[in-house]
Design a protein that fits this description.
Largest sheet of chain A: 5 strands, mixed
Largest sheet of chain B: 5 strands, antiparallel
Radius of gyration of chain B: 32 Å
Oligomer: heterodimer
CATH class of the largest domain in chain B: Mainly Alpha
Number of helices of chain B: 8
Distance between the termini of chain A: 35 Å
Mean pLDDT of chain B: 85
Radius of gyration of chain A: 19 Å
Mean pLDDT of chain A: 87
Strand content of chain A: over 45%
Chain lengths: ~240, ~260
């Protein structure tokens, strides 16, 4: 399984069988599960190009209610006062089948999560004001695998005293997904985490492209979600309930 | 002839035309003022507040225009206002419930325990708020019925806003037989909770023995789930827990009564 254009044929992706057939009437896309039951089917016009790409992790059982990615580190990251450290973590991504048309327009035909990664949610903050996130336990020692994207997090300690970071919450509005065509290698835009006090950290996302040989995936979550916008403001996400 | 006499009595055609002009003018001003208010206020205030205030502005301006028009045709405003005041008192006594609902509606606008579109429970009624008017609140029950509750009753009732939280804790009480292996039971339930994608990892679920009576050992299960998927998860989990316990041979407690037979 690799990311990139899908031509006629069958493709196995995370236990799903994707089938693309081209006929004079146009394209047909179908997805079957591991029991070979049809999950989804779509007819597309002939001029469209189908591609398999990584997407932000918003599909699956919690579709429509996930607002962020909550990464719980297996080992805490300890940073000295006024010091910084860059850690490479992994975050879950979804698979998307996207139909690209002329002029850069696109439509996300299908999306589904990686089945081998535990699908869990968590609430960051109290029930009334918190945000619902896709939850993932990050093993810093484990290498990146399918269904996971690499994220570079720069932790900056601006407060007096040594700080320990165990949780990183990334709002989906600030996430951009990049992939290397012809491979399954995926990265998210890098993140800066500025520790301001014992319980508050600011998260900034770097919108710059990762590297020239990576392509950017379509945006599923446009801008900030309303609740995060309400609690945290537009350009920066404040982790006010601890890190 | 009668009309001419009447018009002569109240000051002639000219005053009537002026009164009509005042009425039309006040109607125009009322429309413009209420629309202007709506257009400016909607950006900052919710529609539940803007609509009644807009109506109040409209009615107030129209009322002032009406009084001025009556004055123009020669009727004494003082006596009208006195009569109006007395009438208002009489109507107030006769329509205590309505007035109470109106005041309760005003207080609800200030307190704002819920908004249109939110799922709420008001007293014994549960549903999605469809409209909050000055006198009543309308709920669309989950079975499709439309329930109109006077604001007076809304204000007096216990209100639970089900949409105000992102996550909600579901709770089960599972009665078990006394001889079950509790450690194994907790493990089975934990496995079911961990395996459900919509049971939140944080706050963590809790499984504990809450009660041990003659009839049963009661296992309490608390798990946080997204508010929007509460009912779905509630039903799915209950079925899964029951199935898994049965598969592991863990027996639920059955109603029982101990009867002692005394022999002479």
């Amino acid at each position: 399984m690799v990311f990139g254009p899908l031509s006629d044929g069958d493709y196995m992706v995370s236990g799903n069988r994707l089938r693309v057939t081209r006929s004079p009437e146009g394209l047909t896309y179908s997805r079957f599960n591991d029991k070979d039951s049809l999950i989804l089917s779509a007819k597309l016009s002939e001029s469209l190009t189908l591609s398999l790409v990584p997407l932000e992790p918003v599909s699956g059982p919690a579709s429509g209610i996930v607002e962020c990615i909550y990464l719980k580190l297996s080992t805490p990251v300890v940073v000295d006062s006024n010091d910084r450290i860059v850690v490479e973590v992994t975050a879950p991504i979804d698979y998307g089948v996207v139909a690209y048309g002329g002029g850069g327009s696109y439509n996300i035909v299908d999306s589904f999560p990686e089945s081998s990664i535990p699908y869990k949610l968590a609430l960051y903050g109290p029930p009334t004001q918190g945000v619902l996130c896709r939850f993932y336990r990050v093993d810093l020692e484990k290498p990146q695998g399918p269904g996971l994207a690499r994220v570079s997090v720069r932790v900056v300690n601006e407060m007096g005293g040594v700080a320990s970071v165990s949780n990183i919450v990334i709002p989906l509005g600030g996430v951009k997904v990049f992939y290397k065509p012809g491979t399954w290698i995926t990265v998210l835009n890098s993140i800066s985490m500025v520790l301001e006090s014992r319980s508050v950290a600011s998260i900034y996302s770097d919108p710059e492209p990762v590297s020239a040989d990576f392509e950017e995936s379509p945006d599923v979550v446009k801008g900030d979600t309303r609740s995060i916008d309400y609690v945290f403001g537009r350009r920066e996400f404040k982790m006010i309930w601890g890190y | 002839m009668v009309l001419e006499e009447l018009l002569g009595y109240i000051g002639g055609y000219r005053y009537v035309l002026e009164a009509v002009a005042i009425l039309l003018g006040s109607l125009l001003i009322a429309i413009l003022a209420s629309r202007y208010f709506r257009s400016r206020a909607l950006a900052r205030l919710s529609v539940e507040i803007v609509n009644p205030v807009s109506r109040l502005i409209f009615i107030s301006i129209l009322f002032i225009g009406f009084v001025l028009a009556l004055n123009r045709v020669g009727l004494d405003i003082g006596s009208i206002l006195v009569a109006g005041g007395l009438l208002a008192i009489a109507v107030g006594f006769a329509a205590q419930t309505t007035v109470s609902s109106l005041l309760s509606g005003t207080l609800l606008y200030i307190d704002r325990p819920f908004k249109v579109g939110e799922a709420v429970s008001i007293g014994a009624n549960m549903g999605v708020v469809e409209d909050i008017s000055v006198f009543s609140t309308r709920l669309r029950a989950f079975d499709g019925r439309l329930i109109r509750i006077p604001n007076e009753d809304v204000f007096k009732s216990t209100i639970v806003n089900l949409s105000a939280t992102k996550a909600r804790r579901l709770e089960y009480q599972i009665p078990l037989q006394h001889d079950v292996d509790l450690k194994k039971t907790v493990e089975v339930v934990k496995r079911v909770l961990d395996g459900h994608p919509l049971v939140l990892a944080e706050p963590q679920p809790m499984i504990f023995v809450a009660q041990a009576t003659v009839e049963a050992v009661t296992l309490n299960i608390w798990a946080w789930v997204p508010q929007q998927r509460f009912f779905q998860v509630w039903t799915e989990l209950l079925a899964s827990i029951r199935d898994e316990l049965a598969k592991e041979g863990i027996q639920l407690a059955l109603p029982q009564r101990v009867i002692r037979v005394r022999t002479e």
